[in-house]
Design a protein that fits this description.
Elements: H1 4-12, H2 14-35, H3 45-50, H4 52-66, H5 75-88, H6 94-110, H7 116-146, E1 154-164, E2 169-176, E3 190-195, E4 204-209, E5 219-224, H8 234-243, E6 249-253, E7 269-274, H9 278-291, E8 297-303, H10 312-318, E9 324-330, H11 335-339, E10 345-346, H12 351-357, E11 364-368, H13 371-383, E12 391-394
Parallel strand pairs: 7-8, 7-11, 8-9, 9-10, 11-12
Antiparallel strand pairs: 1-2, 1-6, 2-5, 3-4, 3-6
Helix pairs in contact: 1-7, 2-4, 2-6, 5-7, 6-7
């Protein structure tokens, strides 16, 4: 436990962290990777280059400081990050390295303002925060390994089938090389894939949502090609699209993630997706169809046009069920889209449309997609009076602000 003086000092740094948080975390990564380049085998290089990881860590550090006297309040955030850490292979021995370089970065950025007293208080606080993460993650590692069909670390899977779903999205069907059982998962969860790409010095690890219902003898991921050489995200997605063929072996972690469909509820569920954000929604939609045939579900997907709209046939097949309704939004439909009536609405998902078509008063909402899409959906639902506890969303990558 922390003494009151330490708590007071840490909480007094909250305004400084708000102002300099991103500068501190940017410097932190520079220092840590400079001294421990082997950690680049774990961290997402693309998020580093884009600054997303720095912003996310700054937010986490700020929250930890603000709630240092009540860490229970941020336990959901700890668990969310813990899922990512478990899927990446972050272990207890990594935490002292992180703590050392975080303190160095605080001192580096704040200069004389980071007195010995402040640094000492933060060292104590970090120890408590690290212990919370290590404890939560230890349970997650044990659960992942000991569950039926589970395993520790990364397991070898073969690409049994590769299916082009649209101009930009391809699905990969993955089965274990050892032919043994695979762990079940909750609809909405993801797996991590670890890749050694020829010519690359470090390993690349990426998370991909599972895009099929649980209970199968395979996992399916549906990957969007992130085009453009300057785009660091494109390295892994392009490699999967261009170089990974049927019969190849991939290293995969057990399913993880806390963005999951609550199948204990019977309330109507609304699934909203933009672009490749439909992948966890497909898992949720198929699960409702499989195990909750009486539960009303509305599936809303926004895409540029039919050329990039993946898995549409699967959704249309499920729409034949009495409890499933679907709507497709295209903001730039092609002439062929118009001719064949491939979409329901031209344009974007708006608050007024949701108000007219969706039972916002008693439904649970799940959404995922590009950040502008997510911001717009979150704003619309909030303005329509949907309660916060009925709004659920997932970021592809580090957490960002929706307001």
């Amino acid at each position: 436990m922390l003494d009151q003086k330490t708590i007071d000092i840490v909480k007094s740094t909250v305004p400084v962290l708000e102002q300099h948080g991103e500068a501190i975390t940017t410097r932190f990564y520079q220092l840590m990777f400079g001294n421990h380049p082997e950690l680049l085998n774990i961290f997402n290089h693309a998020n580093q280059k884009q600054g997303r990881q720095q912003r996310a860590l700054a937010g986490a550090v700020y929250a930890a400081a603000a709630y240092i006297d009540n860490l229970e309040a941020i336990l959901p955030v700890v668990k969310q990050i813990g899922h990512k850490h478990r899927s990446l292979g972050i272990k207890p021995e990594h935490y002292p390295i992180v703590g050392k370089h975080l303190l160095l970065a605080i001192k580096d950025v704040l200069g004389d303002a980071a007195t010995d007293e402040v640094i000492d208080a933060w060292a104590k606080a970090y120890g408590v925060i690290a212990d919370a993460f290590i404890s939560v993650e230890a349970e997650m590692y044990e659960e992942a390994a000991k569950q039926k069909g589970g395993w520790d670390g990364f397991r070898r899977f073969i690409v049994e089938k590769k299916v082009v779903e649209s101009d930009v999205i391809t699905s990969f069907y993955l089965k274990p090389v050892d032919h043994k059982e695979i762990a079940d998962f909750q609809p909405g969860q993801y797996i991590s894939i670890k890749l050694d790409i020829e010519g690359e010095k470090f390993t690349h690890i990426r998370q991909y949502s599972l895009s099929d219902a649980p209970g199968k003898d395979y996992y399916r991921i549906s990957v969007k090609r992130e085009a453009g050489t300057p785009n660091p995200d494109g390295m892994v997605s392009n490699y999967l699209h261009d170089s990974v063929e049927e019969g190849e072996i991939l290293q995969i972690s057990a399913p993880a993630g806390d963005f999951v469909l609550d199948t204990d509820k019977e309330t109507p569920v609304v699934l909203l997706s933009g672009g490749v954000g439909l992948t966890p929604m497909m898992s949720m939609l198929k699960t409702v169809a499989d195990v909750q045939p009486e539960r009303k579900v509305i599936f809303i997907h926004a895409a540029q046009n039919g050329n990039v709209h993946a898995l549409r046939d699967e959704v249309e097949e499920l729409t034949k069920l009495e409890n499933v309704t679907s709507y497709f939004f295209y903001d730039s439909p092609t002439e062929e889209d118009r001719k064949n009536n491939r979409f329901d609405v031209e344009g974007y998902v708006t608050r007024d449309w949701l108000d007219e078509k969706v039972p916002t008063k008693d439904a649970d909402f799940y959404f995922c997609g590009p950040l502008p899409f997510m911001k717009a959906i979150n704003r619309s639902l909030t303005e329509l009076g949907v309660q916060e506890e009925r709004i659920h969303f997932e970021f592809f990558g580090p957490k960002a602000a929706l307001v």
